[in-house]
Structure formats: structure tokens, C-alpha cells
Fold this protein.
Amino acid sequence: MKLYHSPMAPNPDRVIYFLRAKGKLDAVELEEVSIMKQEHKQPGYREVSPYAQVPALVLDDATNITESRAICTYFEGIFPEPNLMGRDPKEKALIEMWDRRVELMFFIQFAGWFRNAHPAMAPLEVPQVPETAAKSEKAAKKMVERLNEHLADNEFVAADRFSIADITLYISCGFCRVMKWTPHKELPNLGRWHDAMTARGFAG
């Protein structure tokens, strides 16, 4: 298997951290793709990922899989332990619920802020829309406050144990660095959780 990834980019990081948590990072061949150099838009890479998405996983039978959550689902199936997506219907639903909340209400909102406000993104986001940036910033900050409240009474994001939802929140917090924002240093419960996740060593 070959995994195309871009270091420090959140979606590729989600898969890398997931594999690291599985102890299976050495099970795939890694190839870097530079998003800032727009290597993901080159014809050769589009043969792997038609929509120019990173990460992309190429299986031994030449099947191509994109979307970080889908790639993680594949790895959960072939590397079932440690379980990160739920062992029974209830756990699976709770973990997916929180994973989706973090992704859609925090990560994606932050991405909208970043893509429409950061000067480095101007060549990729044409045109940048300041109103979208402001709206997305407000939504991301509101959701991170709600996550901070949730973590006041929970050691983990979902199902009372470590899961992909924790990984998604961790990479989302890391992504915030591009806007010089460190929510885990501003909010106490999120900070406690973030320190515990870092201590696990799953993120390197």
C-alpha cells in the first residue's frame, strides 16, 4: 500500500496519527505531496486522486481511496486492534457522532477561516472572501467553547475511551497554529485533554 500525504496538513495528519495509534505506520509506503507547491494539482497525481485531494491511499490491487475518514475506516478494518471506531453499534454511533461534530463544526469552520483570511492561501482560494472568513472564525470559536464544556466532565471526546474522535480534535487544534491561535492553551478543559493526548505519544 502507498499513502500519499502532506506533512503538517490536517487531513493527511489525521491518517498518519490514526496509523500511529494502531502501531501500523510502517505498514504503508509514504510519499509526500506538497500542497503549497500545488503538486496535488499536477496531472500525475490527479491519476491517483482525480479531485486533487490529499491524502490518498493506493491499495495493492490499484484501488484508490481518498477522504481521510474513509482511509481510516479501511485501516480500522484491516488493523482491528486497538479499536478506534467502536466495538458495538452504540460505541460506533457515539464515536462517529462526535467525530462528525468536531470535523464539521470545528475543523471545517476553521478551514474556512484559514482559506479565506491567510495570505498564503490567496493563490489557492480565488477569490478569498473576508465575510466567509469572519463567519467561519466565529463558528469555529463557538464550537471550541462547546467542546471545552464537554471535556469538563469527559476524559475523552467520545464513548469514554480514546478514539478517532480524539485524533480528529487533536489535529484540528494543531491546525489552528496557522492562524496563530492555540485554543488548547486558552481553555482549561481542552488544555487538560490536549496535554493528556500529547502524553500518549500518538501524535509523535
Notes: The first helix runs from residue 10 to 22. Residues 15 and 72 are 6 Å apart (CA to CA).
